Protein: ABC transporter, ATP-binding protein
Amino acid sequence: MASVLKLEDVSVVRDENSILDSVNWTVEPDERWVVLGPNGAGKTTLLQIAAAAMHPTSGVATVLGEPLGHSDLAELRPRLGFASSALARRIPRNETVLDVVMTAAYAVTGRWNEEYEEIDERRAHRVLSEWNLDHLAERTFGNLSDGEQKRVQIARAVMTDPEILLLDEPAASLDLGGREELLQLLGGYASDPRSPAIIMVTHHVEEIPLGFGNALLLTDGRVAAQGTVADVITSERLSDTFGLQIELTEQDGRYSARARQAAAE
Ligand SMILES: Nc1ncnc2c1ncn2[C@@H]1O[C@H](COP(=O)(O)OP(=O)(O)OP(=O)(O)O)[C@@H](O)[C@H]1O
Structure:
């Protein structure tokens, strides 16, 4: 099976600043990646390239077999599922949850005059139930809790049956209960062999769901490490990447990290 994403020496320069610097990275259809790194490391920029929303300044980015810059992006976009808080801000607050998810089939936010087919509605209900949202189908998006809104964004992103699912900090701003519910759903989704490749950006190792086997650490636009979660998510590598001594613990496949306490005098 062909790779869903291949970046070869990809660099992005803005205002003479190097935002991504010679990134080489390949994502296979059955892989679930977590991308971690400090603020400003370039994570969102990397995700924008994977989402075919931005071209590299140099290097070659191939998304679903299509080299960016030589492809019709309108054809590529429905094959990608993307959820981010920036996208969520474009969702009309008074739209029903069912419509938020269903409009993904037409790559629009906000329901206008599209004729929806019964098959779309059936699929939307199925997706809502997979993300524990079926009881909220008729509620308006703006009145949902943060956790519910995050799940709606992901349900919308998977509605078109994408070949890559891209998630930019899906657990940000959630309380403990909301985070754990989301991680459980994401873990189940990631562990299902029918699910697409997944790339999830996060700031916290606590937010790595079960079922995510690969990790990429980014710092100052450069890849500090990439490979299996077990090889990459280590105290040493995180300490190097975040520039402070980090103590990492792992239990039953979930991680937590904190700064190492200086030894008592
Ligand atoms: N269009 C742009 N023009 C100039 N600089 C930019 C542009 N877009 C991003 N940057 C800068 O590039 C760097 C990386 O930004 P990016 O949002 O990709 O990082 P990030 O790792 O997602 O950060 P965070 O964790 O804070 O969300 C930042 O210093 C940002 O200010």
The first strand starts at residue 5 and ends at 14. The pocket of adenosine-5'-triphosphate is lined by residues 14-15, 17, 19, 37, 39-45 (CB under 6 Å). The chain has a mean pLDDT of 91. Residues 131 and 162 are 16 Å apart (CA to CA).
